[in-house]
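Protocol step 4 of 5: obtain the predicted structure for the target chain.
Materials: sequence only (see below). No template structures provided, no constraints applied. The aim of this step is simply to have a reference model before the mutagenesis design in step 5. Sequence pasted as it appears in the construct record:
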Amino acid sequence: MGRHAELKPLTLILVLTVVLSESVGAAESTEQRFPPPEFGPEYSLPQSQYPAPRADVYQYVDIAALLVALSAASYLALRRRSRRGLFVLMALSLAYFGFWRKGCVCPIGAIQNVTLAAFDRSYAVPLVVVAFFALPLAFTLFFGRGFCAAVCPLGGLQDLVLMHPLKVPGWLSNALRVLAYVYLGAAILFTATGSAFLVCQYDPFVPLFRRSGSVSMLTLGACFLVIGLFVGRPYCRFLCPYGVILGLLSRLSRWRVKITPEACVRCHLCEETCPFGAIQKPAEEPTAGERTRSRRRLAVLLALLPALVVLSGWGVSRLAIPFSRMHAAVRLAERVQAEDTKKVEGDTDASRAFRGTGRTTAELYADALGLRRQFVLGGRWLGGFLGLVVAVKLIQLSIRRRRPDYEADRGICLACGRCFDYCPVEHQRRKMTNVE
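Step 4 output (structure tokens):
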């Protein structure tokens, strides 16, 4: 492969960044334009739990740092094949994007910003958010999951605490991975309806980066880290919604991580050392009887696929009422109705503020009813999506293919490079090339 051919993907990624910067307006200045009102000497303004806004120049620094980190991760994983280099880069990314940048902007949370912009034309996505969302996706499409390997601070924090990895059974791992699709679909649904930013609201690690937050969220983050002592990157593998998108794109990646640089000797050391269950074992050519049974299972699953999608969509749409209560307008409508019918005594700040606006309850109820209809429609899409995911996974498990060597699963492999250090063929290559 020529030198110019190697530069094409990076050129396309840089062009993508320029186009995004021209097409997306910068966010409005977040500086405080007016001084706070005087409430009296006995009142003190509450301290914000969120990081202070950064100047525009720092946003471009963040984008440049992300671009450099992604490029370095791709080089270290594919060309240098260095686990040590990836580990150092991971520690640096954790220090900068995690503890220094306080986990914000985060590509995982940026899913919600992009979704909101798609459904709400009045919302403009800031440049830095678009860049953090799109650049890891573009790099993954060309070079695999280098972002997960050494750039994502959430993954880096979990990787550092992994001490005694235990193998998760394949059937359990496949079942748990469906949770990430549920999380992704729910995050899109609640963001599209303007109800909540679930990913940011329930991020287990950002409160640790900021060293502040509710006790429940700090406890949740600590629990993930305790589990991460024995299960490799539990959040990344079983919950991360951004990882779902990265996993799908990595299956299409132009270049990918290979366990061994030459012919596999089937020592199975890579399988033993991978804490993420990403190594696929060799598989012999299926017999005629196995192929027949496989075709029958495939035919049954394909026949059941439409029914599974429809039933799943119907089932989730039945949850429209409890889901809609995530929206403040629906909760307000229910509260006002309860007050008007004397089911509750007194009022709340929200209900008093509503009555002071002069709007009628009929208008409020109409808004709430419209939101519930949105949740019914969104629930059908979400359920259908989840039904399709389950059906496709069952189809994948029912198909047996011949696999001559140990291979890294394109969708699951996090490109961490651990298998490099255990592969005897890789050790031989390093000796011949004087690479340590």
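Step 4 remarks: The chain has two domains: 8-19+56-279, 289-396. The beta strands are 279-280, 407-408.
Proceed to step 5.
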